[in-house]
Amino acid sequence: MKFGMERVIQGGLIVAGVIHVLPFVGVMGSARLSALYGIPVEGPDLVLLMRHRASLFGILGVLLFAGAVRANVRAAALAAGLASTASFLVLAGSGGPYNDRIVTVVWADVAALGALLIAAILQLRGRRREPRADV
Question: CB–CB of 18/128 below 8 Å?
C-alpha cells in the first residue's frame, strides 16, 4: 500500500479514535456525564448504564488507535467503528429535537463516520492492489 494512502487511513482511524475516547471521562460519574450530554444523569441505574457506555467508548477508541498502528487489527477496528457510529446516527435520525450538546455529539459522529468511510474505502482499494501471496 502506498505510504500516503496508509497515512490517510491512519489519520481517519485516529480522528475517529479521539472522538470515541472523549466520552470516556463519563466513567468518573454523573457530574461528568451530565456535563458531557447536557442532561441530568441521576439514579444509580442510569448512572451505571451511562458509565458503562463511557467505558465502551473508551474501549472502542483504543481499538481504533490500535487499528491506526497495527494493520492486523485494522479491519476489526474499522468494522466496529463504522457499526457504532452509523448505528448512533440512525438512532439520532429517528428522534429529536436534541439539546445543543447532543447535537454536537451527532456532528462529531458525522465527522467520525466520514473519516472511517474514507479509511475503509482506501483500505479496501489498497488490499485489491496488493499482489496475492498464494498466486
Answer: no
